[in-house]
């Protein structure tokens, strides 16, 4: 990866970039309603919400908005733990909402039997 470039993969629903602090670590952001979303205004890209590189030694925290990096404050260990717990809840809720119901599963099964 090159510094200052946000790589977007639609088929894999991910974005990747080198950490904006310059440490050289790759940062991967999965695109989903419960994780990150990307917007493109015809010129610049924004990634929402912020990127908190809590697992990296640098513990960088920043936003990519309008094609620019906007630095955010450092989170305390307690704030990081709260943020991770909130993320786990959002992911669990999102996966439950997108799990097909019994009727949908039956319909898909029956459609597979069509000639």
Explain what you see.
InterPro entries: DUF6527. Keywords: Plasmid. This is DUF6527 family protein. The protein is an alpha+beta fold. The chain has one domain. The chain is built from 2 helices and 7 strands. The protein has helices spanning 77-97, 102-112; strands at residues 7-9, 14-18, 26-30, 37-40, 45-52, 61-65, 68-71. A 4-stranded antiparallel β-sheet has the order 4-5-6-7, with no helix packed on it. The protein starts with 6 loop residues before the first strand and ends with a helix.
**Beta content:** 25-35%
Q: Compute the gyration radius: what is it? A: 18 Å
Q: Which residue ranges are poorly predicted, with pLDDT under 50 across at least 5 consecutive positions?
A: none
The N- and C-terminal alpha carbons lie at a distance of: 47 Å
InterPro entries: DUF6527 (IPR045384)
Organism: Streptomyces cathayae
Keywords: Plasmid
Protein name: DUF6527 family protein
How do you describe this structure in short?
This protein has helices at residues 77-97, 102-112; strands at residues 7-9, 14-18, 26-30, 37-40, 45-52, 61-65, 68-71. The chain is of the alpha+beta class.
Topology:
Blueprint: E1 7-9, E2 14-18, E3 26-30, E4 37-40, E5 45-52, E6 61-65, E7 68-71, H1 77-97, H2 102-112
Antiparallel strand pairs: 1-2, 2-3, 4-5, 5-6, 6-7
Highlighted features:
four-stranded antiparallel β-sheet; 28% helix; 7 strands; globular; 2 helices; alpha+beta; 115 residues; three-stranded antiparallel β-sheet
């Amino acid at each position: 990866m090159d510094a200052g470039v946000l790589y977007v993969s639609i088929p894999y629903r991910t974005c990747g970039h080198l950490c904006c602090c310059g440490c050289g670590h790759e940062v991967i952001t999965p695109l989903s309603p419960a994780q990150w979303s990307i917007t493109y205004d015809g010129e610049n890209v924004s990634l929402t919400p912020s990127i908190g590189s809590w697992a990296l030694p640098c513990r960088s925290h920043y936003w990519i908005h309008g094609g620019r990096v906007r630095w955010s404050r450092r989170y305390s260990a307690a704030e990081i733990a709260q943020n991770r717990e909130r993320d786990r809840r959002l992911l669990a809720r999102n996966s439950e909402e997108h799990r097909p119901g019994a009727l949908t599963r039956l319909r898909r099964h029956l459609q597979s039997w069509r000639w």
